[in-house]
Write a structure and sequence with these properties.
about 475 residues, alpha/beta, Fumarate Reductase Iron-sulfur Protein, Chain B, domain 2, FAD/NAD(P)-binding domain, five-stranded parallel beta sheet, 18 strands, binds flavin-adenine dinucleotide, binds iron/sulfur cluster
Length: about 475
């Protein structure tokens, strides 16, 4: 700890965001970095606690608190404060291969566990992380690793989201020959075609995958395993196969006709097609439409922000659960993840444009009102839960709707590929493996990320990818020196 009284001297000062009026005119990133002077002060606020909950990832009350990657946060904050940026970067990269992703999109589980957060002002860990990663790139400190000796082993990774990328990165650095198969036209998974450009510029992903390619990873894009190449072929050509295909099965609400009605779209389809067409509009756009988003979570918020950029006529975000409290409840103390109401960037933009929060809580869509199979309005009703069962009120309200976006969560992986290869799934529709092994019932096949864990977060996908790589290395070599 460079400055013992740093947390008393300096206030928390987060990186800013572009003003709503300016940022809704484009799809550029909304966060604006503050310079090194502020970063050093923010790093000085870290107290290097005896028990750094921020990096511990301990389970409290059924939820993990702190960084799942065990990022060495107090160490690199200390180096940032002292101006030793290269040392800081080394310590950051020790645990996190892709800080430029997490520094942008991670919900910062670390900050919720920071002891400075007891008074509401945790260290700006995520901003510090992003700044350090970008400083590393700007100063040419992050360059392709030279891998002088190669093993004889070949590994195929199916899926290039953060889990597949993390596994590929580590196995390649370990000297194995790694090929990543991706059915989309570009690598990145939901980083590329899910999370909007406003949060994560797609050039950031391209920069990383180009770096990995320069390090020796082969990317085979526009190739769906199971269609363009079979699992049998992969198993013949490679010593091990890692399935990291994500958990893309959208949860569809039980509303009559929802699958067949024109004007209904799944959130990931809507967001990915928008990304593909920036700066023009995709075939299904919100321009001039009354938009209803079913799902009050983060994906729904990304859809709100996207619909606003497409100049929708109105936007309503429907959440079936009640609004969380504004402040932590007594039974949800620090350092647990705070279950409180947050107003995210898309909701802020909706408030700016339409003068009110787009969210309505304890509501659900009951009926689609159509003209010639095109959506015109939806009926919504109050909903509450008794003994875990939904109870929907008799009263209905009709709201105009020409575009209904389904952002109601995910129900696990697409089962076709694993089942065709005889790979067992869990009841939650994820790939089954013994705890911590990542190995499926087909010995040469491993799985990680959302496909294995269920829909989660980028930081968890990276952790699973790294741990899976370790298990694969152990299986291939009979031992491993990966951490
Ligand atoms: C809209 C949205 C916003 C999100 N925002 C955030 C956020 O801000 N912060 C955060 O931490 N998390 C966020 N998440 C969650 C996060 O994106 C995921 O948890 C994470 O991307 C999972 O990584 P993954 O590698 O397991 O799978 P994915 O990222 O889903 O990648 C799987 C890849 O496998 C490919 N694939 C599938 N089948 C095949 C096949 N047969 N052959 C070849 N390739 C195949 C897919 O095309 C895809 O590229 C968001 C999710 C969504 C949907
Ligand atoms: S990866 Fe997420 S939880 Fe870990 S240090 Fe970075 S922002 Fe915090």
């Amino acid at each position: 700890m460079g400055k013992p009284d740093g947390f008393l001297l300096y206030q928390r000062h987060e990186d800013g965001e572009r003003a709503c009026e300016a940022r809704i005119q484009d799809y550029d990133e909304i966060r604006v970095s503050s310079g090194p002077e502020n970063r050093r002060k923010q790093a000085a606020r870290c107290m290097n606690c005896g028990v750094p909950y921020c990096q511990s990832a301990i389970k409290l009350n059924g939820m993990v608190t702190g960084c799942p990657l065990h990022n060495l946060i107090p160490e690199w904050n200390d180096h940032i404060y002292r101006g030793h940026d290269e040392h800081a970067l080394h310590r950051l990269l020790k645990m996190n291969p892709f800080p430029e992703f997490t520094g942008r999109v991670c919900p910062a589980l670390c900050e919720k566990a920071c002891i400075n957060g007891c008074d509401g002002d945790p260290v700006t860990i995520r901003d510090n992380e992003r700044w350090l990663a970008e400083t590393g790139f700007a100063q040419n400190l992050i360059t392709p690793a030279d891998i002088p000796v190669r093993s004889e082993k070949k590994v195929a990774v199916v899926g290039s989201g953060p889990a597949g990328l993390a596994a590929a990165y580590r196995l390649n650095i370990r000297s194995h020959h790694v090929t990543v198969y991706e059915r989309d036209e570009n690598p990145g998974g939901l980083l590329m075609y899910g999370i909007p450009n406003m949060k994560l510029d797609k050039k950031v992903i391209q920069r990383r995958t180009e770096l990995m390619a320069a390090e020796g990873v082969t990317f085979v894009t526009s190739t769906a395993v199971g269609q363009d190449i079979s699992m049998d072929q992969l198993l013949q050509q490679y010593d091990a196969v890692i399935l990291a295909c994500g958990a893309r099965q959208a949860r569809m609400p039980a509303v009559e006709g929802i699958e067949e009605t024109g004007g209904v779209i799944k959130a990931v389809d809507y967001l990915s097609e928008t990304t593909r067409h920036i700066p023009s509009l995709p075939a299904v756009s919100a321009e001039g439409k009354n938009v209803v988003i079913l799902g009050g979570g983060d994906t729904g918020n990304d859809c709100v922000a996207t619909a606003i950029r497409q100049k929708c006529a109105s936007v309503t975000q429907i959440e079936m659960m009640p609004a969380p409290p504004a402040e932590r409840r007594d039974d949800n103390p620090w350092p647990e993840w705070p279950k409180v109401l947050k107003t995210d960037y898309g909701q802020e933009e909706a408030i700016h444009v339409f003068g009110h929060d787009p969210r309505v809580f304890s509501k659900t869509v009951t009926t689609l009102i159509k003209e010639e199979n095109r959506l015109k309005a939806v009926e919504i009703a109050d909903i509450h839960f008794e003994d875990g069962r939904p109870v929907i009120s008799e009263e209905r309200e009709t709201i105009p709707c020409d575009l209904l976006i389904i952002a109601a969560g995910f129900t696990g992986c697409e089962p076709g590929l694993p089942l065709s290869a005889g790979i067992e799934l869990t009841k939650r529709n994820t790939v089954a493996s013994a705890e911590g092994s990542y190995q499926t019932n087909v010995p040469a096949v491993f799985s990680c990320g959302d496909m294995h864990r269920g829909a989660s977060l980028v930081v968890w996908a990276i952790r699973e990818g790294l741990e899976c790589a370790r298990k694969v290395d152990e299986w291939l070599m009979g031992y491993t020196n990966l951490i």
